[in-house]
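Quick one, T. Sequence first:
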Amino acid sequence: MNINSNSCINIDSLQIKDVIDINVLQKFQDNFAESMDIASVTVDINGNPVTKPSSYTDFCMHFIQSTTIGGSKCAESHRKAGEEAARTGKPYIYKCHAGLIDFAAPILVDGKQIGTILGGQVLILPPVESEFKRTAKEIGVNEDECIKSVKKVKITAEKNVKAAAEVLFTIANALSKIGYEELKLKKISKNLEIEILKKNLLLEESNKYNNLKTQFFSIISHELKTPINIIYSSLQLLESSHKDSSVMPTTGIFFKYSNIMKQNCYRLIRLINNVIDMNKIEIGFFDLNLKNNNIIKVIEDITLSVVEYASLKNINLVFDTEIEEKITAFDSEKIERIILNLLSNSIKFTKSGGSIDVNIYDEKEYILISVKDTGFGIPDDMLEKIFDTFTQVDASFRRHAEGSGIGLSLVKSLVKMHEGEITVKSQLGSGSEFIIKLPIKLIEKELNIHKHEDNGLSDNVEKTKIEFSDIYFF
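Structure tokens:
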């Protein structure tokens, strides 16, 4: 295989083994052939087998391919079928020279054939003895024994053959696509390694990435295992109570543990949503649904909806604003997510008896949204890092609350998508203040809309439960 120095891969010289693990392909082929009772083998572009035949019929193995003439005819038949499959770029169903129904499914990379999956060796109608006697005579095998063998060949519907060919075609091409992408990544990685030798800075960045990946798996493992263990333990307690005939489970016991399980389900939903959304943002598939609306009213509604949560921890939550109305274009659901996340953090890290203030300041061309608490505060060395994905304050602070370290990174991304900025001020032991600066802008087609539309907060209770799922009120 030849790989050009310009990071491009010469597809013309690619072989199946370059992009697909042959052992994996063999195992898949064997399992599929056995389950479908249909023969299969994979060959390269020259027709040479790269896998061992799977579920080949006795008729083909011991009669048709047992002679030089028969083997030659098979090879020619397969070659033509492979060419037709490559020409059309899809599976090709045909009758082989021996009279059985076969198929050829091309394995493609960027439209270029690198091999073919051959399969079939079935019939869709009962065999006509005279035709197969003629075939046996042509290749020089015992006619009677050949007829006995062909009568053992599976008879199936044509649609089943087509379905089998489509499945093999889809899976093989999915494997080739993944393998090709991996091959390109390896080439890119190789070029990066050369550059790293020249620039030690790139090596340092690579190490940082590996550390981040390790931290990611550590955090995610903890965040997944903790709620799952709690849910499982609650189920065990309920089952134990139910099985113990001397103790009748009460409604109180049921709701106690069902609420625990529900809260931890919310926690898992929140984690999954955050991971998915961060991934969408990174690859550019996360869009805003901008509408002209009164952002002051939206933020006030969100804040007031969580007053009860704050009061459960004996925290005073206050909302105040310099103006009652400010029409601007924003995504109310995303703003809700931002504010709920900041309030959740403030409640988590503020002791009983503390306070949280949400204030809005009018700066004409933009507004400032402040969420200020009297919590534990953030160390100076962490102020520049807390918006990075999977970053958490040190262990002494994590004792007070759970968290994946994704929330603030997501908040920053959502604020940035609104063309805004978010900053933080904090003093260790005295509290923190998050300040969001959002520009005032209007969508032209909605310039005349100056009313507070439905901002999608009707399901705010459920969303709040999800965002506050890692806060435990005792």
